[in-house]
Design a protein that fits this description.
- The chain has about 425 residues and is of the alpha+beta class.
- It folds into four domains: about 100 residues, Rossmann fold; about 70 residues, ATP-grasp fold, A domain (Dna Ligase, domain 1, 2-Layer Sandwich), CATH 3.30.1490.20; about 130 residues, ATP-grasp fold, B domain (D-amino Acid Aminotransferase, Chain A, domain 1, 2-Layer Sandwich); about 100 residues, Alpha-Beta Complex (Glycinamide Ribonucleotide Synthetase, Chain A, domain 4), CATH 3.90.600.
- The strands form five sheets. Strands 10, 11, 14, 15, 16, 17, 18, 21 and 22 form a nine-stranded antiparallel beta sheet that branches. A five-stranded parallel beta sheet has the order 3-2-1-4-5, sandwiched between helices.
- A hairpin with a 2-residue loop joins β15 and β16.
- α7 packs antiparallel against α8.
- The structure holds adenosine monophosphate and glycine.
- The site of glycine has 8 residues, from loops.
- Adenosine monophosphate (AMP) binds next to β8, β9 and β16.
Length: about 425
């Protein structure tokens, strides 16, 4: 089969690597891809939001299956454009990707179908939001309704911070049209867990759990980022918690989307918080997580193409989703200054050290070839250094050992990815 992957990050590298394992994959393309993905796929210089060009490319090359990695094209309706042309594509349609694209939509869905989540109110008028804050409890959480590169959530300790937050989101439009609407919700405490799942419109099958590290600096300090590293599985996500979530969160979400006439096909990423009152949904994403994909896919035993096709065909019940016992840890190597400002274009040294090393992977998040054909840094998050181990501690030690195999100017990473493992 000919496969096209849309995206250019570590997640898409992990997807491309996984697809390349499938005996069904004859030829893989990635648009736009990166220097690491180029090892498995022919990279095509078409942007992820250029739907018509991508669909024309898929028609011309007779692509059998397109896998969409990123949120923006999904929320923008790329799947609908492909389907209109009769192209096979893995991912939710626009009317289902709204699960990630609008926080107000997802909160209303959870309320209507009794799916546990933080109490909230939705606002379209900044004045009404400011009035609400007069009697609210603090800390409180403000969320821009739309996509905001993972930055549209403000945790406000005090009323003053919240008032300022409402101004930033709804009046200054710091996140653009994502701030047309806003959700204000109760602040929850607990451990966070990411559970990714495959969905075929009717049923859901969950992948191994993972724990992300969203803050830029050690000790969960600094700004929120796309994710600085993670591990899978998380020991805090017990069988008992899983049973609760399967019954009260995962399948009810898929049923709710179907009942609303928005059947979801693709990956739902459940962002959960394990609170004292039980697990609650923090957010939904309509795609694989990044870097979650980098620790979950190396553990997945199944053929990626078979699973994607089963989802598209509504036959996920026929798939026995399996994961290896060996845990996996990913440490993100970023450009110093991420997520605010950073330099790019520095040569990356030592990538060859990962060749033929079983259980070690280097997924490229932001890399490119320069004019001399060297691989250089090309983003805030540059590499995801990933390793398996016989237990979480060994996987963590292996990942940090491999961090030293690669180098580039301004290399920055957290030293405490997986520290929570010691508390398990
Ligand atoms: P989200 O994009 O909705 O996942 O939010 C980003 C991060 O903000 C989450 O991973 C949490 O760490 C935090 N967060 C979001 N909502 C809440 C909440 N209601 N209470 C506490 N923390 C939250
Ligand atoms: N790592 C979190 C995300 O992909 O949104």
């Amino acid at each position: 089969m000919k496969i096209l992957i849309v995206g250019s990050g570590g997640r898409e590298h992990a997807i491309a690597w996984k697809v390349a394992q499938s005996p069904k994959a004859e030829k893989i393309y990635c648009a736009p891809g990166n220097a690491g993905i180029a090892e498995y796929a022919e990279c095509v210089p078409i942007g992820a939001m250029e739907f018509d060009k991508l669909a024309a490319f898929a028609e011309e090359k007779q692509i059998d299956l397109t896998i969409i990695g990123m949120d923006d094209p999904l929320v923008g309706g790329i799947v609908d454009v492909f389907e209109e042309k009769g192209l096979r594509v893995f991912g939710p349609r626009k009317n289902a990707a709204i699960l990630e694209g609008s926080k107000a939509f997802s909160k209303d869905l959870m309320k209507k179908y009794n799916i546990p989540t933080a109490a909230y109110e939705t606002f379209t008028d900044p004045q009404a939001a400011l009035e609400y804050l007069e009697t609210a409890k603090f800390p409180i959480v403000l969320k821009a309704d739309g996509l905001a590169l993972g930055k549209g959530v403000l945790i406000c300790e005090t009323k003053e911070m919240a008032v300022d937050g409402v101004r930033q989101i709804m009046q200054d439009r710091k996140f653009g049209t994502a701030g047309d609407k806003m959700v204000i919700e109760e602040f929850m405490t607990g451990r966070e867990v990411s559970v990714l799942s495959f969905v075929d419109g009717k049923i859901v099958k969950t992948m191994a759990s993972a724990q992300d590290h969203k803050r830029a600096k050690d000790g969960d300090q600094g700004l929120n980022t796309g994710g600085m590293g993670n591990f899978s599985p998380t020991p805090f996500y017990t069988d008992e918690i899983d049973a609760f979530c399967q019954k009260n969160i995962f399948q009810p979400t898929v049923d709710a989307m179907a009942a609303e006439g928005r059947p979801f096909v693709g990956v739902i990423f459940f962002g959960l918080m394990l609170t004292e009152d039980g697990p609650k949904v923090l957010e939904y994403n309509a795609r694989f997580g990044d870097p979650e994909a980098q620790v979950v896919l190396p553990r997945m035993k199944n053929d990626m193409i078979e699973v994607c096709e089963a989802c598209i065909d509504g036959k996920l019940d026929e798939i026995d989703l399996q994961f290896v016992d060996d845990p996996c840890v990913c440490v993100v190597l970023a450009s110093d200054g991420y997520p605010v400002s950073y330099e790019k274009g520095f040569p990356i040294r030592g990538l060859e050290n990962f060749k033929d090393k079983d259980g070690y992977y280097v997924f490229h998040a932001g890399s490119a070839f320069n004019d001399k054909g060297e691989i250089v840094t090309n983003g805030g998050r540059v590499l995801g250094v990933t390793a398996l181990g016989k237990d979480l501690k060994e996987a963590r030690a292996n990942a940090y050992k491999a961090v030293d195999w690669v180098d580039f100017d301004n290399k920055y990473y957290r030293h405490d990815i997986g520290k929570a493992i010691d508390e398990a």
